[in-house]
């Protein structure tokens, strides 16, 4: 299992999360980020090409996986802004209070073990007038799809690096004190149980 999580899973995540429909979603949201940006779950750096270098001053990339980050080296060398990798999880972000203008999270909250704790940490490091930019998959609006998400989630979570199929992302954000400023939803092409997407922005008011 350790061989799988250390060597096979990072490359599988990079491949799956780099699929064309997902990359189109990344392109929609990443350019909204500006100032000093904290990217939660930067992984293999798939979002980096979509940042607007005219808007971004600095990017902190938080991720527990150094194996995934190793896949980002070529991309990091090509961007026009400073990227600082921080090894760690979202439940304990090693940044000062109110230090980020933007927090970006894409296809990451599904894998965070203590999601409300992580969202509380995001609130702490985000400036009062900052914004949370998000693009996540989660609980589908159709009851039949949700039933299958719930049934298969325990198995999927084991083979998918902790990924959950059935999280109600917007309501979790609201529980953590965020207000959704704007949000779109849709099914992406592919396996319906894992492709219902929420994307938009949130803040404190």
Topology:
Layout (H helix, E strand, L loop, with lengths): L1 H16 L2 H11 L4 E6 L15 E8 L2 H5 L2 H6 L3 E6 L12 E7 L8 H11 E12 L5 H17 L9 H7 L3 E9 L8 E8 L2
Parallel strand pairs: 1-2, 1-4, 2-3, 4-5
Antiparallel strand pairs: 5-7, 6-7
Q: Care to describe what's here?
A:
36% of the residues lie in helices and 27% in strands. It is of the alpha/beta class and 205 residues long. It has one domain (2-200): Vaccinia Virus protein VP39 (Rossmann fold), CATH 3.40.50.150. It has a seven-stranded mixed β-sheet with strand order 3-2-1-4-5-7-6, sandwiched between helices. The protein is globular, with a radius of gyration of 16 Å.
Low-confidence segments, given as residue ranges, are none
Going by CATH, what is the homologous superfamily? Vaccinia Virus protein VP39
Q: What general form does the structure show?
A: globular
On the 0 to 100 scale, the average pLDDT is 94
In a nutshell, what does this entry contain?
The protein is of the alpha/beta class and 205 residues long. It is 36% helix and 27% strand.
Keywords:
205 residues; alpha/beta; Rossmann fold; 7 helices
């Amino acid at each position: 299992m350790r061989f799988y999580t250390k060597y096979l899973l990072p490359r599988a995540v990079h491949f799956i999360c780099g699929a064309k429909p997902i990359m189109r979603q990344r392109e929609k949201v990443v350019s909204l980020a500006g100032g000093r940006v904290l990217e939660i779950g930067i992984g293999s750096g798939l979002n980096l090409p979509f940042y607007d270098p005219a808007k971004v001053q600095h990017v902190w990339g938080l991720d527990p996986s150094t194996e995934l980050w190793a896949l980002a080296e070529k991309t990091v060398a090509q961007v026009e802004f400073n990227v600082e990798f921080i090894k760690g999880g979202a439940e304990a972000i090693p940044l000062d209070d109110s230090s980020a203008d933007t927090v970006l999270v894409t296809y990451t909250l599904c894998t965070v073990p203590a999601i409300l704790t992580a969202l509380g940490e995001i609130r702490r490091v985000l400036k009062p007038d900052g914004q949370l930019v998000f693009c996540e998959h989660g609980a589908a609006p159709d009851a039949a799809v949700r039933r299958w998400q719930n049934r298969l989630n325990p198995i999927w979570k084991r083979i998918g690096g902790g990924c959950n199929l059935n999280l109600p992302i917007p309501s979790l954000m609201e529980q953590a004190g965020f207000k959704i400023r704007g949000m779109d939803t849709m099914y992406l092409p592919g396996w319906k149980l894992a492709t219902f997407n929420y994307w938009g922005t949130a803040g404190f008011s």
